[in-house]
Design brief:
The protein is mainly beta and 281 residues long. It has a single domain, classed as Porin, CATH 2.40.160.60. Helices cover 9% and strands 56% of the residues. Strand 4 and strand 5 form a beta hairpin. The longest helix has 16 residues. The N terminus is likely disordered.
Length: 281
């Protein structure tokens, strides 16, 4: 009888002591192109991820854009689906994006995120942008709130751009909507080679944490992009390292992209597949 009582007493303690599983979160939402390039995208301004990333990038290219992305990481149960539209044919560029994401491992959460963004370009050299975002998250970490992103991109020459951005600048006091900042650089050489690097900084801890995202795209025959990237996430605890690659096909800006992200260190065994379909006019 004493043994039975001891077991009954221990079980609740073990349940409370169960470790929290750290998985990808809302910072990892993107397109197949950006994820294949290691998550480096903020100074590229090519896809709909500019709406929820650095909004200043929306005005880098003049076009109408409709883009849909979906991702699934089977080992982690992490996934998202997003739909974005942007119009950058006018002086004031604008876009809107909706994302549904499920993540959290043992602490499962479900997020509905809607973002509206606008960008203005000065002589096509200095681009400034701002985005308002509403997130409704239910599950282990609930919030129904509004925050904002803001960004600046400088493109002194057509083949090189530099950017800075602030994310979740309105305090929400929710662990899934934490504030961070990004510095980025991207290039486009010979109309076929596009390297990019993003560095994210998180000042929410006593010691500054950061994440590094880097990748390159090689465009073959103006139709077939091949991409490879690396990501070090020092903001997550413990640190995570990823390798990624992808390919696609497009004609006059419209097409399809595929990406795969493989966790090589960090203990989660992440294996993420991403598909993006885009139409550009």
């Amino acid at each position: 009888m004493t043994r039975i009582l001891s077991v009954i007493t221990v079980f609740p303690v073990l349940a409370l002591a169960q470790p929290t599983q750290v998985t990808p979160d809302l910072r990892d939402v993107g397109s197949a192109r950006s994820i294949a390039m290691g998550g480096a995208y903020e100074s590229l301004g090519y896809g709909a991820e500019a709406i929820s990333g650095n909004p200043a990038a929306i005005s880098l290219y003049k076009r109408y854009l409709i883009e849909a992305s979906g991702a699934w990481d089977i080992p982690l149960g992490y996934g998202f689906a997003s739909m974005g539209m942007a119009d950058s044919t006018n002086e004031l560029s604008a876009g809107v994006q909706y994302t549904f994401a499920t993540f959290g491992g043992f602490d499962r959460r479900y997020a509905h995120v809607t973002t509206g963004a606008a960008s203005y370009a000065f002589n096509n050299i200095i681009h400034v942008g701002v985005a308002l975002r509403h997130q409704a998250i239910v599950g282990a970490s609930n919030t129904n709130s509004v925050t904002m992103n803001a960004g600046l991109i400088v493109r002194p020459v057509q083949f090189l751009s530099f950017g800075v951005s602030g994310h979740n600048l309105i305090g929400v006091y929710n662990k899934d909507v934490s504030r961070y900042f990004t510095a980025s650089i991207a290039g486009q050489f010979f109309n076929q080679l596009s390297p990019a690097v993003d560095v994210r900084f998180d000042f929410n801890q006593p010691k500054v944490r950061f994440a590094v995202h880097g990748g390159v795209e090689w465009l073959i025959a103006q139709m077939i992009p091949l991409r490879v990237g690396y990501q070090y996430d020092g903001i997550a605890d413990p640190n995570h390292h990823y390798l990624s690659f992808g390919a696609g096909y497009f004609s006059e800006g419209s097409g399809i992209d595929l990406a795969y992200r493989h966790e090589v260190a960090g203990g989660l065994n992440g294996r993420q597949l991403v598909l993006t379909i885009k139409m550009q006019l």
